[in-house]
Amino acid sequence: MRNTPQRTRSYTPPTRDKIFIWSAVVAGCSIMALLGRHAAIHRFGTDLFTGNILFAVFFVLSIGLYCGFQSVIEDVFNRLSTLFRRREVMAIAETPTGEKVSVSTTDVPEIQEQCSTPIPETACVAENKGESKVAIPMNENRPFEVLEIVDGMRHIRFPDGEEAYVGMELSDDEIMIEKSYNDSRDYDAELEEAYNVYLDSMTDEERYDHEHGVTRIQKKREYDEDVGFFSSVCIQDVHKNPDGSTLIEETEQEVYVTPDGSVYYLEDMGPICDFYEKHKDNIESHEEIMTRKQRCDEAFNELKRHEELYNLEQVSFICAYITHTMEQFMESHELDKLHNNAKIWTVNPLARFDTVQLRSNHLSKEDLKHLGYNVGKFLKLKGENIALFIKNVFAESFGTVQVGTIIAKLADRNPGKDRIPLLSAKEMNYLFEHYKRYKTINLDIIPKRLAEEEVKAKLEAAKKKNRK
Question: Which residue in 392, 408, 423, 395 sits closest to 318, CA to CA?
Fold first, then answer.
């Protein structure tokens, strides 16, 4: 049979804390008695014998005073000692007979010595009275390992490495049954089943939105400038009193304001409504008006898309023409500035443009005027707009030249010296049609197109002559 450790009564020697307290008390009482003796001899003039008697009396009184307040003083010393004492860690150990023993971690070897059979490494958990936690190895017969106890919960680890927090009231069998149930669950199947239930609960509209990725949000109606609004105005009645003072009566009157600014008082709304009720059969319905408006909007948007596409092709052609003409006379960053000016020019002919600089003075003023004239005529701009563009963009060359002078000499030519040829709007359109098809700038196609036009004109004239 296994022997359990025998508990015997034995004399408990005083602890170090009590010895320290008694030493402090004796030392304090002695100091107080010596101070009383010294005061009696040197302060009050008593003889040495009387001073010794007073020393004994003071010492005895101090000891008696301590004995009277011993519990209070010891409690204070205990509280102070706990602040500096190393916190004790207690362990709950289970012996082979099933008895649970609460011991400190330093007393475990002593219990081992008192038992005839050593305590096996049973499952035990350190109960921490401080902040640290001590984990004690568990018994092989237990299906899991208890790591620690936190807030009344056991932190355990199973042989497969999985960890969990369980309540203190659960038995080992209950814990293992719960783990077996969790391990046997098919979470993917449960998730799919929950998803199918979610789909079944949808309405037809919600299902369509879900399948096609449609998101619907509630939006408040925003009234544009085509919708009027109700407001109020202040109507004043001014009365002159006989005493010379003035009385002004103000009345708030609700009105309806139309988009064009017309104001209708509420008393005027009655006849308007009566007129509508009388002639509503001959008036187009709201649905018909909205249908016609929708058709007009669609046609306008289609026209607008074609116009935007045409404008984009125009801008692309102008930039390509400028690059073809000016890249050998300008740095790349200056050429980019000139492109940006041209883009702005297609939208706002009177905008403020950035000044550009040429790489050299190889181009004459006539060449620069030709460049502005060619692009401006292609955009169907007037001579004044073309002259302002040239003066602002090429300010270094035309800073002192008047706008009127530039307008008067826009179409001047210098045969044999012009580096940039002067082109008409028709010739620029020839280049534009060629660019839309081939995405290149080729000035050689202009004479060919002119020749074709001349031949066509002669044929038309010959046909008319034959008809006559």
Answer: 423
